[in-house]
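BACKBONE STRUCTURE TOKENS:
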Amino acid sequence: MQRYDLRKHKEEKLYNRMLEIMEKDIKPNEVCIFLFEIGDFSPIQKSFDIMSEAGHEVRNSLKFNEVDWSLVVKRKAS
């Protein structure tokens, strides 16, 4: 399991980077953790939707601290 700190990414680049990581760095059926800033909470639902639409399984979604969120995702099987 790998953790990716995406807090430096603004919302418009966040989702593309998540998908890029899932396709290039994560093996099928492997689990990873994304850490990102939440701001107004809209990135949480959008991240969940994007991962689900791509066929990946969101395993967990937790508030990490006052401004950060963690999303645990399992990559789809090939």
Notes: The longest strand covers residues 31-37. The domain at 2-74 is CATH 3.30.110.40 (Translation Initiation Factor IF3). The longest helix spans residues 11-24.
